[in-house]
Design goal:
globular, mainly alpha, about 55% helix, Multidrug-efflux Transporter Regulator, Chain: A, Domain 2
Length: about 180
């Protein structure tokens, strides 16, 4: 039996549709308990991230697509980075959390890009680090820079997130292998 493949940073099994687009076509936002269940992150941790300014506060007790993506991205990174480094990396791409005008790419688009890179159509395929730059370039072929150098910032952030995510995956595998020693 092959292992269940989930969307990165979540407990949601991969299917043929996009995670966030699929959810947000049928709802105008997610509650804290729904985000917590989807990501496996305790509700109190998410509330703490909001309180500390790492995630924008929900509007009307609902988290938007972009906010959920940011929570998922932080969740993907927190096994490898301290939370301040994870949010600094996300701010490197999107500047001030409260000001969308300085965003290079919306957090939900960054997450979708990562899913496209991390979840191959042939789910037996493994990411080849040597091909990563080429795959990222292909993924961003239609990206229009809001200012010179923005694409370079985005590429650096995508690589860092992928390396951190893969590092956490390898750490988990190593722990699983040595569990019974």
């Amino acid at each position: 039996m092959s292992p269940l493949i989930c969307f990165p940073g979540t407990k949601v099994p991969v299917n043929s549709s996009s995670l966030l687009n699929g959810i947000f076509t049928v709802t105008n936002g997610l509650t804290l308990s729904q985000v917590s269940e989807m990501t496996g992150v305790e509700a109190s941790s998410i509330q703490n991230w909001v309180k500390r300014g790492f995630v924008n506060p929900p509007v009307g007790r609902k988290y938007s697509k972009s906010q959920v993506a940011r929570i998922i991205l932080i969740n993907m990174l927190r096994e490898t980075f301290v939370i301040e480094r994870a949010t600094k990396l996300l701010s490197y791409v999107n500047g001030d959390l409260l000001d969308a005008s300085d965003d290079i790419m919306d957090d939900s688009e960054i997450y979708q890009c990562l899913c496209d890179l991390l979840i191959p159509s042939d789910q037996t395929e493994v990411i080849d680090i040597k091909d990563l730059s080429t795959k990222i370039d292909e993924q961003l072929r239609h990206f229009i820079e809001p200012y010179p150098g923005a694409k370079d910032r985005l590429v650096l952030a995508l690589k860092a997130i992928i390396f951190a995510y893969e590092s956490a995956s390898f750490k988990k595998l190593a722990n699983d292998l040595t569990e019974g020693l």
